[in-house]
Amino acid sequence: MSGQRGSRRLEELRKLDREAREIRRRMAVLLWMREKKILDFRDVARAIMRFYLNPSKLYEEALRELKARGVEVAGVEVRAVAPLIAVKARSTAQESRLVSTSTAPSLSSEELELLATLGRLGGELDSEALMEVSGVSSDAYWRLVHKLARRGLIVATLTYSNGKPHLGFKLTREGRRVLDSLKPAG
């Protein structure tokens, strides 16, 4: 019986090692994307698609370009992060209504609401959850995200849940500054 447990344990360790190597590959590609300043959500999506179509090719390209830039990839460390959580939209209109102060850029009420929702939920969230919580249609959601990203208020991010990547969005410093310049109504 102990031989079976040892075999299972060995297989678990091998699986963990494979997963850690894959995470390091993905982190290296993400580091490459950061170094190349791939920030627009469409460019991020393109890079992710390239990775999934041919992961080895993009990984090798990333390593070559990082090495040419003098960026050390061997130091990429796998760190555990909190899993994505399901969120529920706040239901009262009073909680979600915001009044802009003079320091906030001219944003539509929908843009302000999406920005405030992201801020309320910790400043970073996967796109699917943010769309669900925002309560707007898919088309409207992507238009709002695009406008906010163009203004430098949010950036696309890559989050992982159950080992699978998900496109997400994160407030930038400017986005946080805009939110800080807002105050709750009434």
Q: What's a quick, concise take on this entry?
A:
The protein has 186 residues and is α+β, with helices and mostly antiparallel strands. It contains eight helices and five strands, in the order ααααβαβααββαβ.
Helix-strand sequence: HHHHEHEHHEEHE
Q: Going by CATH, what is the homologous superfamily of the largest domain?
A: Winged helix-like DNA-binding domain superfamily/Winged helix DNA-binding domain
Strand order of the largest sheet: 2-4-3
What share of the residues does DSSP label as strand, in percent?
5-15%
Distance between the termini: 68 Å
Q: What is the helical fraction, as a range of percent?
A: 55-70%
Oligomer: single chain
Structure in words:
The protein is an alpha+beta fold and 186 residues long. It folds into 2 domains: 67 residues, no CATH class; 92 residues, Orthogonal Bundle (Arc Repressor Mutant, subunit A), CATH 1.10.10. It contains 8 helices and 5 strands; from the N terminus they run ααααβαβααββαβ. Strands 2-4-3 form a 3-stranded antiparallel β-sheet. Strand 3 and strand 4 form a beta hairpin. Helix 1 packs across helix 3, helix 2 crosses helix 3 and helix 5 packs across helix 7. It starts with a helix and ends with a strand. About 13% of the residues have low confidence.
Which helices and strands occur, and which strands form pairs?
Elements: H1 2-35, H2 41-53, H3 55-68, H4 93-96, E1 98-99, H5 109-120, E2 124-126, H6 127-134, H7 138-150, E3 154-161, E4 164-171, H8 173-180, E5 183-184
Antiparallel strand pairs: 1-5, 2-4, 3-4
Give me some keywords for this one.
186 residues, alpha+beta, Arc Repressor Mutant, subunit A, three-stranded antiparallel β-sheet, two-stranded antiparallel sheet, 12% strand, globular
